[in-house]
Amino acid sequence: EGLTKWVMKPRRDAGTNGVFMVETLEEARAAWDNITGRTTIFGESNDTVLIQEFLKGKEYVVDTVSHDGVHKAVAIWEYDKVLVHGSAFVGMDDHLYESADGLKEEELAAYTFEVLEALGVSYGCCHAEVMWVEAEQLPCLIEVGTRPHGAGGNFPALCDPVIGYNQLDVSLDAYLAPERFAAVPRRPGPHRGAAAQYKVINRVDGVLESVDLSRLEAELPSFRGVDLHAHPGDRVRRTVDLVTCPAIVRLQHADREQVDRDRRALRRLERGMLTVRPAKGAGAAAHRAAPCADADLPEDLYTLVLATH
């Protein structure tokens, strides 16, 4: 009662695959047909749909490790998302989060620990997605998986220099070196620099002809690598979720402002990263993609996003 927006998604999937925001019964029916008519990224068929209240706020990930009922929040990530190609679930990046006073991190950790207790989680890794609800200034669970952070398994290289440890090592310590697990704080302390996973947005349906990373390596001091989700010869679609994101650029530096500058610079440099031959009917010439059209993402968008941190 009183709700005007809902989120519909598969009960078991990942990468925002098959996630829809709906406002009308017609949109809900269309989302239902789309979700139940597709296969998850795990190769399973969808026969049920989860409907959730749409929450307005900022989304966070709280990565945890538990052992014998003792919970540790080992990393907290903040998501920056933007409306592109009609989808409200396109990520610009996620970055290790640190506030000035640590109060929000403490609330996010405490809330997530309560979720783990309610679910009976006493051992292992968890990856919780939590919305910081704007109107109430309180956390609210979106979903939680009893698994480590994803990101192609490359997140330890971002967490180690900034936090001093990572979820996988802490999980191993819980079993093999209990004294080291006991020494890990309840949540991360002061960060040493910053780290982010920048998500490239593709706006052209077609075939990926080439990928050029040379300018990233030369011009971004915080550049630490790229996880390519598409390779030359692959068909690529316009980005509407994480599944259709063609690449993730990893950034990490001891100077937080350097990472922020490089996040802004990527808005410009990513325009020359991908060369895509448009699909039939979309034009014959190869498109040296501006993965985000100016009409979709203004050049100063990162300035606006970063100003809120």
Provide a descriptive summary of the structure in words:
A hairpin with a 2-residue loop joins strand 4 and strand 5. By secondary structure, this protein is α+β, with helices and mostly antiparallel strands. The model is unreliable at about 285-309 (pLDDT under 50). The protein folds into three domains: about 1-55, no CATH class; about 55-190, 2-Layer Sandwich (D-amino Acid Aminotransferase, Chain A, domain 1); about 195-280, Pyrimidine nucleoside phosphorylase-like, C-terminal domain (Aldehyde Oxidoreductase, domain 3, Alpha-Beta Complex). It contains eight helices and 15 strands. The two termini are about 35 Å apart. The strands form three sheets. It has an eight-stranded antiparallel sheet with strand order 8-7-4-5-6-9-13-11, sandwiched between helices. Strands 12-10-14-15 form a four-stranded antiparallel sheet, with no helix packed on it.
Layout: helices, strands, pairs:
Layout: E1 6-10, E2 20-22, H1 25-36, E3 49-53, E4 57-67, E5 70-84, E6 87-96, H2 103-119, E7 124-133, E8 138-145, H3 156-163, H4 167-176, H5 178-183, E9 194-199, E10 206-211, H6 214-219, E11 223-228, E12 235-236, E13 247-253, H7 256-269, E14 274-278, E15 287-288, H8 301-306
Antiparallel strand pairs: 1-2, 1-3, 4-5, 4-7, 5-6, 6-9, 7-8, 9-13, 10-12, 10-14, 11-13, 14-15
GO molecular function, one term: ligase activity
Keywords: ATP-binding, Ligase, Nucleotide-binding
InterPro entries: ATP-dep_AA_Ligase, ATP-grasp
